[in-house]
Amino acid sequence: MNRPSANGQPPMRSESLDLTLTGLAYGGDAYGRDTSGRMVFVPFALPGERVRVDIVETHQQWARGRIAGLLQPSPERIAPRCPHFTDCGGCHYQHMPYPAQLHAKAEIVRSQLQRLGGFADPPVEPTVPSPSPWNTRNHLQFSVTPDGRLGFQAAGSHRLVPIRECHLPEPVLAELWPRIDLEAIPGLTRVALRAGAESECMIILEGEGGPEVELAIDLPASVVWLGPEGSTVLAGAGHLIAQVLGRPFRVSAESFFQVHTHQAGTLVRQVLDGLSIQPRQTVYDLYAGVGLFSAFLAQAGARLVAVEQSPAACRDFEANLEEFESVQLYEAAVEDALPALKPQPDAVVVDPPRSGLGAQVADALIALAPSRLVYLSCDPATLARDGRRLVEAGYTLQRVLPFDLFPQTYHIETYSSWTK
């Protein structure tokens, strides 16, 4: 079979091959090598399976394919719960039993630290499981189809898949989102849903212009419009209250918050344990968000210095830590603020975005030389890259603990502790 040519050149012959898969890569794909030694990545497959693959993307040393036939399925393969699986790009592991997902995530973290970080035997522990592999997300983001339906982006494509069901959100959101009826709203591009304590919900409409919306709401939720000029509250409040370990946190529509509320509490306990804070010690909380870790560190008696770039998150931070006096908050990019911060930190916690610390922040941290560092990462590749830099500067990796905040997906939250 030939692919049609779009540029007048002779059509490109399609390539199919039989392949035995040997591992699972970060990103959700299984992989194996063809007879030439080329690495081939295949989504929605499992290690140990023999598959017939149609190659859809070719590079000099690797290729990506899609399953054309399961020649020898893995005995671990299970039926996915959701009918949208493999079409919608939201989940990657529904064909894997949950214990296998946890094992795979720990092995992926180990592999990334070895391959990209140069760690011969990184101290990676078993993945901390979610209490449930389903209905855990407190934040759900939809795209909007041209006819006003909610959908997710298709796997490996920009195509939108209208959704009839989804098993990832918390029960209160799972009940809410099918009731949202979106008629034509000018400029509407995305819809996000968030859940807080006591079944509190927020609907966030994201658009290209102002909120030209005539709103009639018969739903138990507040509604906020996010546009180029900022946020506009259309109904209810512009924030909700999340509760972690019995402590309330104000979270505005624009602010980041961990998507798995229960695991957020488990992470907090782990951070407190890893930093071993004594009263009056100085602790830096970098990429502090709304103050999730800062609040508990301040409660433990730390003199806290926090840095957060988002104005909305900073407003939430101030509300969430209003009771504490020994807290300084800087609204700035971490790379700009860090060289000027005082006093010297006894310990530091960092929770950067997917891009990691980068050389500038890592070097500024190294210059401050805190004796204890906790690094929370949502990308094991950038953790490994930054970790190599820390080791070269004299830090020792003490512990690596993957947390499953994202069941059914390839995403991994990783706790790591370092000492100087």
Provide an overview of this structure.
The chain is an alpha/beta fold. The protein folds into three domains: 1-77, Beta Barrel (OB fold (Dihydrolipoamide Acetyltransferase, E2P)), CATH 2.40.50; 106-131 and 260-419, Vaccinia Virus protein VP39 (Rossmann fold, 3-Layer(aba) Sandwich), CATH 3.40.50.150; 139-241, OB fold (Dihydrolipoamide Acetyltransferase, E2P) (Beta Barrel), CATH 2.40.50. Helices cover 20% and strands 30% of the residues. It has eight helices and 22 strands. It has helices spanning 98-115, 171-176, 261-275, 292-299, 311-320, 334-337, 358-368, 380-392; strands at 16-20, 23-24, 30-33, 39-42, 50-58, 62-72, 139-144, 150-153, 160-162, 188-195, 201-207, 222-227, 230-235, 239-244, 247-252, 282-286, 303-308, 327-331, 347-350, 372-377, 396-403, 413-419. Strands 9-8-7-10-11-12-13 form a seven-stranded mixed sheet, with no helix packed on it. A seven-stranded mixed sheet has the order 18-17-16-19-20-22-21, with helices on both faces. Strand 5 (50-58) and strand 6 form a beta hairpin. Helix 1 (98-115) runs parallel beside helix 8, helix 3 (261-275) packs across helix 4 (292-299) and helix 7 crosses helix 8. The longest helix is centred in the N-terminal third of the chain and has 18 residues, at 98-115.
